[in-house]
Write a structure and sequence with these properties.
By secondary structure, this protein is α/β, with parallel strands linked by helices. It has a single domain, classed as Divalent-metal-dependent TIM barrel enzymes (TIM Barrel, Alpha-Beta Barrel), CATH 3.20.20. Helices cover 43% and strands 17% of the residues. The chain is built from eleven helices and eleven strands. It has a nine-stranded parallel beta sheet with strand order 5-2-1-11-10-9-8-7-6. Helix 5 links the parallel strand 7 and strand 8.
């Protein structure tokens, strides 16, 4: 039986116009034990100026490691989403994210298949994804880093599709980063889908969906950037926790919400369930 911990994706400070380091300190102040930073390639003006939380993979990975150690928080993983269907982008991006994760101490790198090229067929896309995941898995296996595949786009919007992507490469480094909110918006029961992947689960995005969004978008979209505060929407959190308690691996529930206030309410709700 695995243990459950609570973390927060750094998207919770996306509208605070503050730096990564500020966000880490805020997460600790709210009571979070883990954080999930977002990384990007190259240089980006707002991040460089300290007005956005994302960290460039051109930075020293010890920037992340040191900030977390100073604040007294651990890393649950890195948010390194890149379009697996586009190998000219994702192959080197994902490999660099894995190397960055290994050096800063993040055990998981989370990604999804991303928007597909406009001109490729479904079969071609799966060949392209297999290439990317094979290249990435070779880098990940050597470093003890896991790759978390998330339900988020055109092929992973249903259980069979996510399973097909997972099965493209036979590697102990590849697992599932389940997203409660995306799976719900795709039109599925998140709890039943979570049960299906629990033995392959390496990380979980605890994303809540407000009732109004659920009524307007369910079955029409494949996911959403962030949700609302956990406990204030449609997700059955007690049932999610029950499934996680039976998972073979320790799992961090990484809250995905859009504001500091939502992050504060989320951890209070989840702690009341986990204890």
């Amino acid at each position: 039986m695995g243990k459950i911990a609570i973390g927060v994706n750094m998207e919770f400070v996306r509208h605070a116009d503050k730096s990564f380091e500020w966000g880490v300190e805020k997460a600790v102040a709210l009571g979070y034990e883990y954080v999930e930073p977002m990384v990007h390639w190259g240089r980006e003006l707002l991040s460089e100026a300290g007005y956005f939380h994302s960290v460039s993979m051109l930075d020293d990975p010890w920037r992340v490691k040191s900030a977390c150690e100073k604040a007294g928080v651990k890393l649950s993983g890195l948010s390194a989403h890149c379009p697996l269907c586009k190998p000219e982008i994702s192959t080197e991006y994902l490999k660099q994210a894995i190397r960055f994760a290994a050096e800063c101490g993040a055990p998981v790198v989370n990604t999804d298949e991303g928007p597909k090229p406009s001109w490729t067929s479904e079969e071609e896309d799966h060949v392209l994804m297999r290439y990317v995941l094979k290249e990435a898995s070779l880098v990940a296996e050597r470093r003890g880093v896991l790759i978390g595949l998330e339900p988020h786009q055109q092929y992973s919007k249903h259980p069979d599709g996510l399973d097909r992507i997972y099965g493209l490469v036979d590697s102990p480094a590849i697992g599932i980063n389940f997203d409660t909110g995306n799976s719900y918006l795709c039109g599925h029961d998140p709890v039943e889908w979570l049960k299906r992947v629990s033995d392959r689960l390496v990380h979980l995005h605890a994303k809540e969906i407000p009732k109004a969004q659920a009524e307007a978008e369910r079955g029409k979209v494949t996911g959403t950037a962030v949700g609302c505060a956990c406990g204030e929407g449609v997700i059955d959190w007690p049932a999610v926790v029950e499934v996680l308690r039976g998972a073979p691996r320790d799992i961090v529930m990484s809250v995905e919400c859009g504001t500091v206030e939502e992050a504060e309410r989320s951890i209070k709700h989840l702690k009341s369930l986990i204890g």
